[in-house]
Amino acid sequence: MTVGVLLLAAGSSRRFGSDKRFARLADGSSLLQASLGAIQRSGLPLRVALRPGDEIAAAELKVLGASAVLCPNAERGMGCTIADALPLLPAWEGLLIALADMPAIRPATYAAVAAALAEAELVSPEYRGGLVTRWASDAVCSRGWHSWRAIRARASCCGRRGLRAACSRSTIPASTAMSTGRLILRDGRSELLGAILARLFASLWSSMTTNTDDLRIQRTIELIAPRQLVADIAVSDSAAETVSAARQGIHRILAGEDDRLVAVVGPCSIHDPEAAREYGRRLRAVAAEIADDVFVVMRVYFEKPRTTVGWKGLINDPDLNNTFQINKGLHLARQLLADLAEMGLPAGTEYLDLISPQYYADLISWGAIGARTTESQTHRELSSGLSCPVGFKNATDGDIQVAIDAIKSASQPHHFLSVTKQGHSAIFQTSGNEDCHIILRGGKHPNYDMFSVDDATEMLVRAGLPARIMVDASHANSRKIPARQVDVIRDIATQVARGSRSIFGIMVESNLLAGRQDVVAGQALTYGQSITDPCIGWDDTAQLLEELAAAVRTRRQR
C-alpha cells in the first residue's frame, strides 16, 4: 500500500509579522524547510500544496527537491486547498495531511502513522444510532473552517449542542470504504473541513444503505488532472506559434481568403509514437515544398470509435494489451503533439468525448467530429467551444443533412457540462465556432464525385452556410481499400484543376507502409504499418500531394 503526504503550505498567515512559513528556527531553517525535511527523511512520497503565484515558496521547494501542486482556491480555506490538491496527487492508496508550520513532528512519526494506515478503521460521526445527515447539504456547500463553524453554530441553535457534542464514535471496517480509501478521524470536529466532510458523508451513507448506484462499476482509477499534464509537457513559444498560425491559415482558407487546399494526411490511428514522429518528419519536408499550394495538417488520431468492440486507440490502451493505462496514453499523446508542433507541423484529430480535449486541445490545429457522433448534441456543444476549426462528417448512411445541422448548431453559443483544467466538474459557456465545415466520407454509396459535391454545395447554400467542402478519401468513399483512396484523391485533384471552389480540403489515411496488420500477442508488429484501417504507403502519399498541389496551380490559371 502506497501512502503519501500532502504538506499544506498554501496559507498566507502573518502571525509573526511576516509570512510565517519562512519564520526562522534556532538552527536557521524556516518552518517550511524544517517541516518538509522531516517528511522527506521519513522516506514517504510527498507533494506540497501552494497557492498560484507563490514564487518564493516555489523557489524554496525547488532547492529542497520537492514537487508542488497549485491550489487556486487556497484563499478560501484549508478545505478548498485540500479539494484542489486531491485530483493532482499521484495514485496513492493512502494519504497523510501535514501542516507546514509543524516542524516538531519526527520522521519516525510519519512513518509509523503510514505503516498503521493499512490496518486502520474508518471512523464515522454518529448521532442517536445513525449518521449525522441533517447537515449534509450544508457540508456539501461548505468552504473551509469558517463555513464549518457556521454549520456548528446552526446546529447549536437547533438544540443539538453543536456537532461536536452530537457525534459519538462508531467504526466501520476499512474494507467497506471501497475505492474511497481509508481515512482516520478522531471525532466530528474540524478535521473534516469542507469538501472532505461532504465526501465522507456521501461514501459512508452509500455503504450503510441499499446501494442503487455504480452496480456495474468494478473499479475506478484517478486520472491525472489536465493542468498537471499540461504543466508536465508545456508548450514552447515556437510550438504555440505553429498551432496559432495553422488555425488562422485554415480559417482564411475556409473564408475564401486563401485559395490553397487543406490536406489532412496521416495514419488511420496512432499506435507507435516513434513511427508517428518519423512520419511527421517526412511529411514536414513535403509540406514545405508544396506550402504555396497545399496547407498540410498531419492526421493524429488517438481515439477510435468502434462499431462494436476493439482497440479504442493510444489513449485508451497504449500498450495494446488490454491494460488500459489511460494516464500513460494521455502522456504519450500530448508529448507527440508537442513534438510535432515543435517541428512546425500542425496536427488534426477527432474528438470523441468531452474530457480528453482538456489534456491536449491547445496543441490541435484542426478537429473532426466523426460520422457516428455528428448527430450528438454534446459533440456539437463541444465544437462550439473548441479553439480550432472543426469538420463534421456526414452520417454513416450518407445523410449529409445531419452534418449541416451540426454546423449550424456548433456556430451558436451553448452551455454544457465538462471538466476544468483542474479536473473539477463545471458548466462551460461557449461563444460558438464560425470555423465549422462538412466532410463528405461516403455512406451507402461514395459521395466524392462531382455530382455529389454539387448536391452538397446546393444543400449548404440553401441552409445559408458557406459552400466549403472537405472530402475524406478513405472510409466509405474508398470502401477502405487503399488503392481506391488513390483513385478518390486523383478524382478530387481533377475537380480542383477544373475550377471547383467548393472543395477546400481532403483527408487521406496514409502511413509509412501500405496496408494494415493485426495485433497478435507475442508477435512483433511491423514498424510503420496501421493496426486499424488500411492506409496508402509513403511513396504514394508524397506523389499524390504533389498532384494536389499541381491541381491548385492549374485552378489559379483558369
Automatic annotation (TrEMBL):
GO cellular-component term (any): cytoplasm
Recorded catalytic reaction(s): these are:
D-erythrose 4-phosphate + phosphoenolpyruvate + H2O = 7-phospho-2-dehydro-3-deoxy-D-arabino-heptonate + phosphate
Q: In which pathway does it act?
A: Metabolic intermediate biosynthesis; chorismate biosynthesis; chorismate from D-erythrose 4-phosphate and phosphoenolpyruvate: step 1/7
Alphabetical list of SUPFAM superfamilies matching this protein:
Aldolase (SSF51569), Nucleotide-diphospho-sugar transferases (SSF53448)
Under Enzyme Commission nomenclature, its number is 2.5.1.54
One Pfam family of this chain: NTP_transf_3
Q: Which residues form the MobA-like NTP transferase domain?
A: 6-164
One GO term of the biological process aspect: amino acid biosynthetic process
Which segments cross the bilayer?
Answer: none
The source's domain of life comes to Bacteria
Name one molecular function that GO assigns to this entry: nucleotidyltransferase activity
Q: What's this protein's function?
A: Stereospecific condensation of phosphoenolpyruvate (PEP) and D-erythrose-4-phosphate (E4P) giving rise to 3-deoxy-D-arabino-heptulosonate-7-phosphate (DAHP).
What family is it from? Belongs to the class-I DAHP synthase family.
Q: This chain belongs to which protein, by name?
A: 3-deoxy-7-phosphoheptulonate synthase
Task: Give the species.
Answer: Kineobactrum salinum
